[in-house]
Amino acid sequence: MCHETKEHGLENSFMKVKCPLCDISVLSKKSYYDHLSMKHAVSIASEETEFASFQEFSEWKKQTERKTLSLYVKKCGSYRTSDNVNRHSLVCHRSGQYVSNSKGIRRMKIQGTNKIEGVCPSSIEVTEAGDGSCKVKYVVTHVGHQDGVRHLNLTEEERNTLAVDIANKVPLQAILDIVRDTLSDSMPERIHLLTKKDLYDTEQCNNLRSEVMRQKDDGISVEAWVNEINASVNPCVLFYKPQDTSSQSHPLLRSEDFVHIIMNNAQCEILKKYGSDCICIDGTHGTNGYCFELITLLVLDDMRQGFPCAFLISNRSDQDVLSLYFNEIKTKVGKVRPQVFMSDLAESFYNALLSQTEEPVRRLYCSCHTDRAWRKNICIKTKSKERQVETYKLVRSLMQERDVVTFEHVFPLAPEHLVSDPVTAEFGFFLQ
Fold first, then answer.
1. Which of 26, 256, 380, 398 to pair with 332, CA 20 to 30 A apart?
2. Rounded to an integer, what distance in angstroms lies between the CA atom of residue 328 and that of residue 297?
3. Residues 221 and 214 sit within 8 Å (Cβ to Cβ)
């Protein structure tokens, strides 16, 4: 009993090795082995062997884990000694105490935790020499748990095989049926307990749930997609500048700027066909966590339906970036002069268009932006609530009026008529 906690007069929390069969903690591994022998009649068996290479050791380890239904993981990182020898320490994955990382929010699994709230003596000590040969000391005896497949993890080879099937669009239920059909009268393995949760985890670890997400890091994922598209037969990326880079051909772009212009061949043909009629451009704000803006250029097709022809994703929407946008489109499509150009109230869209093409015959403002500006100006310039409602009804009716005679009757264009009606006069003042 000289190695036990009480005889040393030390608290359990300061001990290094805890017995899973009782509440005793001891100071060292040797003391732990003595305690198991004297108190629990457990004899620790070990064996030593050598391998010509680390690869041979890895194969032996896989076979041993498969045979004993166990798993050995690194207790800590490998280290190199002064005589150029690498040492690896592997312990039974059931060894240790359970520590929750979810602050108690998640419920415990039905099967319980893998940890046995103590130390399992089974371990593998590997000494790797400079020539690649390995000496292995293998402690065979397990204590504190029984062999079982339910606490094992899928091997790397099994996960890779499942990932290939998932990437090939094999239905998840079909994968489960195929795996369970391999079960025979022999001892079942961990793969035979495969669940859809395992398949979902494999999808997430290998980024197989999304067709466009290459990496968890968005910057790396986008750049991988751009490189893949540029190497394809029909690339659709007209221009790409990631953040934290400089552009020699466009010195006006800053290092922190992100500019991504996309147009495929079908969009190019549609713009060539309908671009001389009407071109609309608008941006969407606040749709992502990077403060990037999506600016879409679209045309009206023969059905008078809007068809998007080019996309710009950027952290800037000023005239410099928009001029680059229109210039790349002109390089791809050729010179296009629309009869009608529609945008929001910002002058940057129109000025950028004029820098790359001729002035359109008509310029229109988007109705939703115009309506928003009217509401704001009416509230500023008209203090009476009743007059605000009356003025807004008038401007909305004028916006929807298509007959010229009726429009001029409601709102005469001659300045001397502005004072004939108080509401019309106020409306004329508001439009100025």
1. 256
2. 13
3. yes
Say which DSSP state 193 is in. G
Please give the domain boundaries of the chain with CATH numbers for all domains: 5-99+108-139 (no CATH), 156-205 (no CATH), 233-365 (3.30.420), 368-431 (no CATH)
Q: Which residue has the tokens 């300061």?
A: 14
Contact 270, 279 (CB under 8 A): no
**pLDDT value at position 204?**
78
- Residue 190, Ramachandran bin (φ over 0: left; ψ between -120 and 50: alpha; else beta): alpha
Q: Helix-strand-coil percent breakdown of the chain, rounded to 5? A: 40, 20, 45
Q: Cβ neighbours of residue 184 under 8 Å, at least 6 residues apart? A: none
| Closest to 202 measured CA to CA, from 244, 251, 153 | 153
Q: Would you say 61 and 72 are in contact if contact means Cβ atoms under 8 Å apart?
A: yes
Residue 132 tokens read as 């690649």
Closest CA to 391 of 400, 402, 380, 382: 382
How far apart are alpha carbons 125 and 121 in whole angstroms?
Answer: 12
- Cα distances (Å, whole numbers) of residue 165 to 172, 179, 189, 193: 9, 12, 19, 17
> Are 126 and 135 in contact, with CB atoms under 8 Å apart?
yes
With a cut of 70, list the residues of the chain below it in pLDDT. Answer: 1-15, 77-79, 81-82, 100-112, 147-148, 185-187, 207-217, 286-287, 410-432
- CB-CB contact of 162 with 174 (8 Å): no
Identify which of 382, 391, 393 has the alpha carbon closest to the alpha carbon of residue 423: 391
Please answer whether residues 165 and 172 qualify as being in contact, where contact means their C-beta atoms are separated by less than 8 angstroms: no
pLDDT at site 112: 65
pLDDT for 181: 81
- Strands 306-314 and 293-300 turn out to be antiparallel
* Structural contact between residues 195 and 154, judged by C-beta atoms closer than 8 angstroms: no
Give the Cα separation of 366 and 340 in Å (integer). Answer: 12
Cα–chain-centroid distance for residue 309? 27
**Residue where the block lists tokens 């520590």:** 99
At residue 226, φ and ψ (nearest 5 deg) are: -60, -45
| Backbone angle region of 207, left / alpha / beta, with phi > 0 → left and psi within -120 to 50 → alpha | left
Q: What pLDDT is stored for residue 278 in this prediction?
A: 93
Beta strand pairing status for 259-262 and 306-314?
antiparallel
In the chain, DSSP finds a helix count (H) and a strand count (E) of: 14, 15
Biggest alpha carbon–alpha carbon distance for the chain: 114
